[in-house]
Amino acid sequence: MIRYFQDVWQGFWTVLVGMKITWRHLFTQPATLQYPTVKWPLPPKSRMRLFMKYEDCIGCGQCVRACPVSCIYLKAEKRPADKPPAWAATGNPIKLDVKIFDIDMSLCCYCNLCTYPCPTECLYMTPEYEFATNDLTKHLYRFAKEDAVLLTEDPKKKAAPPQPAGGGAAPADEGGGSPPPQTPPASPAGA
User: Fold this and answer.
1) What average pLDDT score do residues 8-17 get?
2) How many other C-beta atoms are found inside a 10 Å radius of the C-beta of residue 86?
3) pTM for the predicted model, two decimal places
4) Which of 2, 44, 106, 172 is surrounded by the most beta carbons within 10 Å?
5) So where are the chain's domains?
6) Model confidence over 102-159: pLDDT tens digits?
7) Phi and psi dihedrals of 116, rounded to 5?
8) Between vectors from CA 54 to CA 149 and to CA 58, what angle results, nearest 5°?
9) 66, 117 contact by CB (below 8 A)
10) Are 144 and 101 in contact, with CB atoms under 8 Å apart?
11) What is the third-level CATH fold of 54-144?
12) Selection from 64, 162, 45, 79 nearest residue 114 by Cα
């Protein structure tokens, strides 16, 4: 009979201990994150999915040579002479037509080594990290486009400031000397 009351008391005591922990956590800030609607901010320089801006690619292949796992596939041909000249957004001339530019993210090790040698900065890591799938073929991204609109004017020439009529750059005023001459104010017509 004593054993029965000990078991009842032990069951009651364990419920009280559990409720003490429950009541303590009931009035504190939750530590969990409601993931689909709320996301943690990513740290700077996070490495996620690769993206390539096709219009700025010059087909140099430096990203392919830098990739340690060979997940980037590139095929480029010499640009035909009858096509108008084209430039990347950085001002580099596009001399090759990129026919194939594929990235297999199922092979990528997210090292970011392919983005550093790119002279036009057209290859970069995006902050998107939710691209899980059951099918590995969905991780093969094809970036080559037939209907891409390329720049036909050199952006460096557009950004260059106009030169003065004298042929050389105007000397900068270094704070010394006399101020530039001022035109006198117009006198009233009746004076």
Assistant:
1) 92
2) 19
3) 0.63
4) 106
5) 54-144
6) 999 999 999 999 999 999 999 999 888 888 889 988 999 999 888 888 887 777 776 6
7) -70, -45
8) 95
9) yes
10) yes
11) Alpha-Beta Plaits (3.30.70)
12) 64
